[in-house]
Amino acid sequence: MDYFLKVVALLSVLIIVLVVGFLTMLYLVFKIEDEEKEEKDQWLSEAYCFQCEIEIPVKEKKGRLYCSNCGLRH
Questions:
Q1: Please, which residues have CB within 8 angstroms of residue 34's CB and are 6 or more apart in sequence?
Q2: β-strands 48-49, 54-55: how paired?
Q3: Among 29, 35, 49, 70, which residue carries the largest CB count within 10 Å?
Q4: Cα–Cα distances in Å, from 71 out to 2, 13, 49, 63?
Q5: pLDDT higher than 90, residue 2
Q6: What's the half-sphere exposure (Cβ side, CA atoms, 13 Å) at 35?
Q7: Which residues contact 65 (CB under 8 A, 6 or more apart)?
């Protein structure tokens, strides 16, 4: 009986460690994605259009960036 309780305790600890590791991994993945999105949004807000010669926000359409003023592709 004592052997059985040790096995159950070890299995429960293993399961808890796996769940905590999985949740930590999910948190870090979403945190990295959020940082990348913030960097991209910051870069988009600081874009410079050489046609209009001003710093203006750009639009993204099908993965391409366009000037929101003149439509020039960046």
A1: none
A2: antiparallel
A3: 49
A4: 75, 58, 10, 14
A5: no
A6: 6
A7: 44, 47, 58, 59, 73, 74
**Paired tokens of 55:** 């710093």
Q: What is the mean pLDDT of residues 42-61?
A: 65
Render pLDDT for 11-33 as a digit per residue (tens, 0 to 9). Answer: 999 999 999 999 999 988 888 77
Separation CA 72–CA 50 (nearest Å): 9
Amino acid at 26: L
| pTM strictly above 0.70 | no
Q: Residue 45 above 60 pLDDT?
A: no
To which H or E segment does residue 62 belong? none
SS3 42: helix
Q: Which residue has the tokens 């592709």?
A: 73
Count the Cβ atoms, other than its own, within 10 Å of residue 60: 11
